[in-house]
Design a protein that fits this description.
mainly alpha
């Protein structure tokens, strides 16, 4: 059965360029908001919102609030998946950016524990929950708008464009903290850390302007026209679970390294370097900045490679490569030498970015249009739930290992193996099971190899 209700018109090159620019910039600003919390969880929240706990317990408590955002992501996936499949991808993305900007800005206004007691961490967790709701619909919407506007033979490289929002968001958020981190500690912990969060209010206006200018997906417009003729369809999320639950599990495994591995090598490593190794916080923040630059280059290269060899092959190869560099990454960080710490973090993040570049093309290609937003959002954000627990699990493993990094390296290997396996299963095994009527099957007329051969 074909997964396209009605063949949509192909947009012009100018339309594609405008869409890619808006998707990238809007996603970068959204991830800036979200990643701010991860950096603050490692450096600030443990001290200001959990001051009565010992340092290790306070760090774990801080990462628990960090994980709350990931627990909320499937709820956001359900809500925005329904909106995106029923009312449009654009409508969902406008709501997500408003919710993210408002909740992030409000974190910068929160009183600390000394001012309002237990309500401080409660309100912090509540705002983190709203961030998670927003992100639950953000990535899938931006990815679908990109791929549903663009020719299939270029989905490998085009799917990497929204992914660039992650390292750019990291650069913006880590750069903001690097600047305020130059303040004396008293000023940093009293008011300096709030400035990057308050900046979200201003960025919200810019992001909203970009989202309002995005054209609705031509695939959704065609799907909506069919629905008006044929009558209402079943609830998209229920239909997605009924028809594609196995593919959703494959999507979870495929996306796991890009989320869990990233937060292990950024959010957790900042805490590990400062708390366990005694490395200055500026060194660890600068390491994430260097890693983000490396990630940008890798995403661009891996995305273009995916057009040539296929997205699932790039994802699987990146998972295997991440297994191989897990221990060397932490050996470099454990030296405490500034140059080697920077190299270790950059190496780890660069390699896990190989599969991250193409996961959008792999995951979206597995699902039919009518439930695609719901299925993609739920797959990616169930992986996000697991990913949000990774810094907490890493902190626990480090405690068991008396501060050594071998347990965390094994955790990274496990995560990378999940993605390598999921990516392979999303390739030939799934293509064989779905048969030649599925667009990802090599014999389907819309498959990139067929398109190139007949061009």
């Amino acid at each position: 059965m074909s997964t396209t209700p009605t063949a949509p018109p192909r947009p012009s090159a100018a339309d594609i360029k405008r869409l890619l620019s808006a998707a990238f910039i809007g996603t970068a600003l959204e991830w800036y908001d979200y990643f701010l919390y991860g950096t603050a969880a490692a450096l600030v929240f443990n001290k200001l919102f959990f001051p009565s706990l010992d340092p290790t317990t306070a760090t774990i408590a801080s990462f628990v609030t960090f994980a709350v955002g990931f627990a909320a992501r499937p709820i956001g996936a359900a809500v925005f998946g329904h909106i995106g499949d029923r009312y449009g991808r654009k409508a969902a993305l406008i709501i997500t950016v408003v919710l993210m900007g408002a909740s992030t800005g409000c974190i910068g206004l929160l009183p600390d524990y000394d001012a309002i007691g237990v309500w401080a961490p409660v309100l912090l967790a509540a705002l983190r929950f709203l961030q998670g709701i927003s992100v639950g619909g953000e990535w899938s919407g931006a990815m679908l708008l990109t791929l549903e506007h663009t020719p299939k033979e270029k989905h490998g490289s085009y799917s990497s464009i929204p992914q660039l929002g992650s390292p750019v968001g990291t650069l913006l958020s880590s750069g903001a903290f690097a600047l305020v981190g130059m303040l004396p500690d008293d000023a940093f912990y009293s008011w300096g850390w709030r400035i990057p969060f308050l900046a979200a209010f201003g960025l919200l206006g810019f992001a909203l302007y970009l989202r309002l200018r995005i054209e609705e997906s031509p695939v959704f417009r065609a799907m909506h026209a069919d629905a008006e003729r044929e009558g209402p369809r079943p609830a998209p999320l229920i239909e997605a679970f009924r028809r594609t639950w196995g593919r959703m599990l494959i999507g979870v495994a495929t996306a796991f390294l890009g989320i869990g591995g990233f937060f292990l090598l950024t959010t957790y490593v900042i805490s590990y370097g400062t708390e366990q190794l005694g490395v200055d916080k500026s060194v660890m923040i600068n390491a994430t900045l260097l890693a983000a630059v490396a990630e940008i280059a890798v995403i661009v290269i891996a995305g273009r490679l995916a057009d040539r060899v296929g997205p699932w092959k790039v994802c699987a190869a990146g998972g295997v490569a991440s297994v191989l560099v897990a221990f060397p990454t932490f050996w470099l960080i454990d030296t405490r030498h500034t140059g080697l710490v920077l190299l270790g973090v950059a190496l780890g993040v660069a390699v896990i970015s190989i599969p991250y570049a193409a996961i959008g093309a792999v995951i979206t290609g597995m699902f039919p249009d009518t439930v695609r937003y719901s299925a993609v959002a739920m797959s990616y954000n169930l992986a996000g739930v697991l990913g949000g627990l990774v810094p907490l699990a890493a902190a626990w493993l480090t405690g068991l290992a008396d501060g050594a990094s071998w347990g965390v390296a094994l955790l990274l290997i496990l995560i990378a193996a999940c993605t390598a396996t999921g990516s392979y299963v999303a390739g030939p095994p799934l293509h064989r099971r779905l048969g030649p009527d599925h667009p990802e099957h090599p014999e389907h007329p819309e498959h990139p190899a067929t398109v190139k051969a007949t061009a």
